[in-house]
């Protein structure tokens, strides 16, 4: 994924697709606006604020004159620390964040800077998504689209979670999870859902 989130197929229309059919990246404000909708139109939600700060942090890297970028970087660092220290959400700008990702609650949320999170994922309180061991510090998970991550779950290492997978509360995921699967427990195993996953 490039510097800005790309258009999911379902959201494409003639007006927002470039001539060569490459999805047109959304601008900062358009992204923040749809994040706001995804967070129930509540600008006071810590999750929305964390995502907005991460979007801003990524956007500012495209401001090429260093003299202009420097004050934006200072502002980003202040806002990032505030989100981390006050809300307990560590979401660095370097995370490849898809569209309309929702951080449903705050507190104890740690996302490694090399993580990819697909469109429409839901992340809850107490979730860690990061490297598994200190000797592979840059290995981090890739979440597909619409992955639903339960409270307290830990997703560790250079693994892939398929689209629409559900990760149960407090699961510790250490291996790839196929699309649509339900993964629960420590270490997480695939289970057949009996219904009710949301
Ligand atoms: C994972 C989850 C979505 C499963 O919902 P479901 O589709 O209704 O699945 P079921 O309840 O039928 O459970 C299927 C199996 O997984 C087990 N299971 C479900 N959730 C589990 C969990 N968090 N940890 C360990 N096992 C779990 C069930 O015991 C069952 O096991 P069995 O087949 O051996 O009987 C749900 O249990 C969950 O953890 N949701 C997280 C939501 C959350 O974080 N809420 C916080 C809001 S603030």
Largest sheet geometry: 6 strands, mixed
Rg (C-alpha, Å): 17 Å
Molecules bound to protein: coenzyme A
Taken as a percent bin, the fraction of beta residues is 15-25%
Q: Which architecture per CATH?
A: 3 Solenoid
Task: Give the terminus-to-terminus CA distance.
Answer: 27 Å
Helix-strand pattern: HHHEEEEEEEEEEEEEEE
Instruction: Provide a count of the helices.
Output: 3
- According to CATH, what is the topology? UDP N-Acetylglucosamine Acyltransferase, domain 1
Which strand order spans the largest sheet, edge to edge or round the barrel? 3-6-9-12-14-15
Kindly name the structural category: alpha/beta
Share of helical residues: 10-25%
What do you see in this structure?
The chain has helices spanning 28-38, 46-60, 66-87; strands at 89-90, 96-97, 102-103, 109-111, 116-117, 122-123, 128-130, 142-143, 148-149, 154-156, 160-161, 166-167, 172-173, 182-184, 189-191. With 198 residues, it is of the alpha/beta class. It has a 6-stranded mixed β-sheet with strand order 3-6-9-12-14-15. The protein has a 5-stranded parallel β-sheet with strand order 1-4-7-10-13. Helices cover 24% and strands 18% of the residues. Helix 2 runs antiparallel to helix 3. Bound molecules: coenzyme A. The site of coenzyme A has 17 residues, from strand 14.
Write a short abstract of this structure.
The chain is an alpha/beta fold. It has helices at residues 28-38, 46-60, 66-87, and strands at residues 89-90, 96-97, 102-103, 109-111, 116-117, 122-123, 128-130, 142-143, 148-149, 154-156, 160-161, 166-167, 172-173, 182-184, 189-191. Helix 1 runs antiparallel to helix 2 (46-60).
């Amino acid at each position: 994924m490039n510097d800005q989130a790309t258009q999911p197929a379902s959201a494409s229309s003639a007006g927002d697709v470039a001539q060569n059919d490459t999805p047109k990246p959304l601008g900062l404000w358009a992204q923040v606006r749809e994040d706001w909708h995804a967070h129930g139109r509540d600008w006071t939600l810590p999750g929305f604020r964390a995502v907005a700060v991460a979007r801003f942090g990524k956007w500012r890297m495209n401001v090429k004159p260093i003299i202009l970028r420097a004050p934006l970087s200072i502002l980003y660092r202040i806002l990032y620390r505030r989100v981390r220290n006050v809300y307990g959400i560590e979401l660095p700008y370097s995370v490849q964040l898809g569209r309309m990702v929702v951080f449903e609650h705050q507190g104890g949320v740690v996302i490694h800077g090399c993580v990819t999170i697909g469109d429409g994922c839901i992340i809850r309180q107490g979730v860690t998504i990061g490297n598994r061991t200190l000797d592979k510090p840059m290995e981090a998970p890739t979440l597909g689209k619409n992955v639903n991550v339960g409270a307290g779950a830990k997703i560790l290492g250079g693994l892939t979670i398929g689209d629409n997978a559900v990760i149960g509360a407090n699961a510790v995921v250490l291996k790839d999870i196929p699309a649509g699967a339900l993964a629960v427990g420590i270490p997480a195993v695939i289970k057949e859902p009996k219904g009710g996953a949301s």
